[in-house]
Design a protein that fits this description.
alpha+beta; homodimer; 5-stranded antiparallel beta sheet; 3-stranded antiparallel beta sheet; Phosphorylase Kinase, domain 1; 2 domains; 15 helices
Chain lengths: 424, 424
């Protein structure tokens, strides 16, 4: 079927006509649909059986950036990157991503498991909902998917062949420009920020040491083909069942899923870890403008810090366990493993710093900061994000342990040393 | 024309029948041929006009390793890698590689400029012939070709697309195994070495610190897609007109060319630099078994050291000049440029160490050591190569300047501190 943009009506016909219809629905089922997308890049429909239990999510890539109208064209080839990444992640970390149902290249459609009871995590987290397994789950997901697509798990030729399927040229260029270049230079850029930040942005643009370190991180992003990354792992790419939801299936409470891998490419592992860290920290600094009560605010910050530390620890321990299965004696050398994980850690810290800065003064912002009601509080939080971002970038090549990172974060978030031990 | 192995006779017919015949020869010219290949992987014919001046080199990839007979199959796809690499190098460094004439994929043939007056450099260098421009020329060649195919010169998408044309799976796997794995582990391996080296090889296999650093270098080799490398830049991949040759064209005296880029792939720049360095150093340690006269030996060693230093310096200065033309403001940051070149330097030193070791105890040896007539002298030189190789690998992550490398080399080659100033 040649590409055409689906509607609530035509999606029903499309689904009924698909050869894999009966892997997803009962024969002859009557279908209905709703559009649930809030994204900029895609149409997202939930297609469900009338009166039945089965449903499927139909996600179609648009050939332009929705918010910008047809003036910002964007290749719908990204649906293919998403399909291939989902397949790899589903294999390496089953149950952590929506189960793929079919991929239709011509229509740029991914049909996948409909996560009925799940909510995108960013907004509930701005409202300080706690997901106690968050850090652990993301760390494990990363250990599983990144190891499985690395040279440690795959024969050299197979990994190179796989990486050639992920020449995600357009979205990589977008990340290079929006994360690593534009926020750090005056022009040309698509930067957007409050005039109250003029001073801080000016300082940043004059900070040549910082810019060199960012260039180093950008170069790693562009040349380090370590593993198949998710590529856009912020809290808007995570879904969860709310911990207090009263569900039929109690096992599913607090179930966390990783979605939207359309930015997937072969890059440095620390980029995924760092983006996740940064988005926890953006929330943490933003809480200054959301939680009027000091105790509540600091309690949530302590929870976020705990998730960040647990993410790294579960990633590290998961990766070390998998290292025992590595294909070559080279990867079994204990000192190599240690220094490799240390380099991933340093990358993570640096990438986290870049993400914090670009989400504050670059093109794409985050709800956490944008939704702070008081403009003065918002600017204060944004300053906090810029400061912490700079501190992370500055220290990333020297930082040697998760403890040292913890110390930096405790100081920046004004937390007591033992605060992260407060249990949620 | 379907693939068939060429002979001295059939190559004439093949050349006459090729559509690009008249780009290479005068119309209706009578041709003759000679086979001049000494390689293991390819047939190499010189096809020339009888009584005329024009000639062409016809290089055909064999589908197996020649020395091992048909029992070691090897994809003739490497002729394509050579053709594409030659094209890139010819563009970035015109006059430094044989001018490509045509590439015939089906026949796995590269037809190229016939370097009549040039000799492969390894043997003359074993006999201590000096090429005063060697280090400078190779350094410039590397600055030109590596910069031109890097993210500094090419738009991100173009570089990624180009790198996808160089998935040199088979030859990369061969390098990984033969350079970085087998020499450092007991089994399984294709290692070959004199029983007199048993002690040293045992020490090496028990050196876990060394093995970790080699694993680190191997990982960089496999994941650092910085630029299109030559991939096999030893003194057998260099040709030159002998400096004392009495030629009609005086300008061509001492002319140096880089040949045989069939191992080309996107990897860490330091690999090319390091292989060249290592092959100079293998010659230097081998001179202990070739030059009976101490002064003559040390004089040649000083010459070799000078070439090594000049190679790095001309690479570095050439690269810094090209950096001024870089595409993104990120790459113009002076501190980034400095730390980038430092990392290439450290890689080079580490890769040089691996190459020295694998050429001594691995599968593929070098004439420099193999041709030492006295078995005791040979073992002595081999021990020297192993020792220096280990020292380079051990120090590579700490070494900060070419001066520091010079000090290590002066000591290992028993040269006076000023010896490298002795002019050739």
């Amino acid at each position: 079927m040649p590409y055409h943009i689906l509607t609530r009506e035509s999606v029903l016909e499309y689904v009924r006509g698909h050869p894999l219809f009966d892997t997803a629905f009962n024969p002859g089922a009557a279908l209905e649909s709703e559009e649930i997308g809030d994204g900029n890049l895609n149409l997202v429909f939930r297609v469900l059986e009338r009166g039945g239990e089965r449903s499927v999510l139909v996600k179609q890539a648009l050939p332009y950036l929705r918010v910008a109208g047809e003036g910002w064209p964007l290749s719908k080839a990204r649906a293919g990157f998403e399909a291939r990444a989902l397949e790899q992640q589903h294999r390496a970390a089953p149950g952590r991503v929506p189960r793929p149902v079919w991929f239709d290249e011509e229509m740029a459609v991914n049909a996948m498991e409909d996560l009925h009871f799940h909510t995108v995590m960013r907004a509930p987290m701005v409202a300080r909902v706690q997901f106690p397994e968050l850090g652990y789950t993301v760390g494990r997901f990363l250990a599983n998917t990144l190891f499985a697509t690395s040279d440690f798990a795959l024969p050299s030729a197979e990994k190179k062949r796989l990486s050639a399927q992920f020449l995600n040229l357009e979205l990589c260029e977008l990340s290079e420009a929006l994360i690593f270049t534009e926020p750090f230079y005056v022009a040309p850029s698509r930067n957007r920020y409050s005039p109250a930040l003029e001073l801080e942005v000016g300082q940043l643009h004059r900070d040549t040491e910082l810019r060199s370190r960012v260039a180093h991180l950008k170069y790693r992003f562009m040349t380090q083909a370590q593993a198949l990354l998710h590529g856009d792992l912020h809290t808007g790419s995570l879904m969860a069942t709310l911990p207090d939801t009263n569900q039929a299936d109690a096992r599913a409470q607090g179930d966390i899923r990783i979605i939207d891998p359309e930015f997937a490419f072969f890059g440095p592992m620390g980029f995924d870890v760092g983006l996740f860290m940064a988005n926890l920290l953006l929330n943490a600094v933003a809480q200054g403008g959301h939680a009027p009560d000091l105790l509540e605010r600091q309690n949530y910050r302590a929870y976020l810090l705990k998730q960040l530390l647990e993410c790294w620890r579960s990633f590290e321990s998961g990766f070390l366990t998998r290292f025992e299965t590595a294909r070559s004696p080279s990867w079994l050398e204990p000192e190599f493993q240690k220094s490799f994980l240390n380099s991933v850690f340093q990358d993570s810290v640096g990438f986290a710093g870049c993400e914090m800065i670009r989400r504050t003064i670059g093109f794409a912002h985050v709800l956490d900061l944008e939704s702070i009601p008081d403009p003065l509080e918002r600017v204060k939080a944004e300053r906090g994000a810029l400061e912490l971002g700079r501190a992370l970038i500055r220290s990333h090549q020297k930082i040697e342990s998760i403890r040292a990172l913890e110390r930096i974060l405790l100081e920046h978030l004004s937390l007591e040393h033992s605060a992260h031990e407060v249990s949620p």
